[in-house]
Amino acid sequence: MKRVDLIKEIAAEFELIANRLSETEVATVASVVELEPQHLAEIAKRAQKLTGPKNVKLKTVIDKSLLAGIIIRIIEEFGALFIKARICPSKGGDWFQL
């Protein structure tokens, strides 16, 4: 069992190094329900505008403690950025507001 834990740690460290080399930022998106692929694409696009890296990789988490909306957590090398967004259709076609 200790070997399995060790392999998980090695894989996590490998992912961190690979992301750093490819200038990829990992963002965790928490929501009450599973988000549609087009919504995740829009979140990645907006997160990329905020952080500036070439690539943004999303990890999704279902959080039943949320009442509505989403929380986006982006960890950069020197700090963290938390974004709370509301899901609401607007006249401009956006489905969420930061």
From TrEMBL:
It holds the Pfam family OSCP. InterPro entries: ATPase_OSCP/dsu. It comes from the Eukaryota. It is found in: Membrane. GO terms for cellular component: membrane. GO terms for molecular function: proton-transporting ATP synthase activity, rotational mechanism. Its main location: membrane. The keyword Disulfide bond does not apply. Keywords: ATP synthesis, Hydrogen ion transport, Ion transport, Membrane, Transport. PANTHER family: ATP SYNTHASE DELTA CHAIN. This is F-type H+-transporting ATPase subunit delta. The lineage of its organism: Eukaryota, Viridiplantae, Streptophyta, Embryophyta, Tracheophyta.
